[in-house]
Amino acid sequence: MKYLIIRDDDLSYWTSKDEIEEKYAPFLNKGFRVSFGIISDSVRSYNLGNYDTFYQDFDLQKNINENKELVSFIKDELFKNRIDILVHGHNHTYYFNTCTIKELLPATHENLTLARQNNKKIFFFGEFNNGQITKKMYLDKLQNAISTFKSVFNIEPTVFIPPSNQLCDNALKAIQSYNLNISGLYGKNHLSVYQNILRLYYSKFHKIHYPHIYKNITNQLSYHSLTTASSFDDLVLKLEISNKLNAPFQIATHYWELDYNLLSQLSEICNYAKRIGYIPIKLSQILHK
Description:
9 helices, 4-stranded mixed beta sheet, single chain, TIM Barrel, alpha/beta
């Protein structure tokens, strides 16, 4: 199955419709498809991508439906069947701890400033990787997000993208309870012996995550990052390996990171994939049961 997936996370109330349209219209107009991760009720984040200055305002949370321009754009593209939308958490909050503070604290300006002033090494945990949150609380988060998909976009979502690409066990169980497929490979302890052997085999002999669809409680597909911290040469190599294995290839990025250089890289690898026989597809289609 040589399918190409472009996955872009973090669309929320705080997203500019013009920025999304400017960056992705050239891809959509060329026949590529984009799978957007939607944060239904995102808190306000500052200095995204900057580990040393990033923080969030937990008191400033907005539903995506309040951004009428963005919602209209998404609805138009859904009608044209050029995109799909995926659940990317509920509010995308971060928590953190340090070497000396084991309790997870909200990633607010006050909390992070104090930790940084004390020169503490900070460890961030994504919204669905907080071991202090129960399965029931994660179920409530998913219910809120799914309700927005239904009421705003008239869509029953089928795919979940873990915020920060992190999942704890309670979160995974909640996601499976809603029968949502997952972008990424998670829950090694829930895999069969055979599946774990396959995972180790591809890692050792092909230097790649298991490239095909994991058929488990819910379906999962690995992704390959295109960010300012990733290697483009490595991304191309992973595509070539996937091509030899006749496997799908999922590129994961963030619109707010896509400067001129990264957009050029995204265009280059997508065009290359198309030349070697990859077919653009939406993530929900390939993970459909």
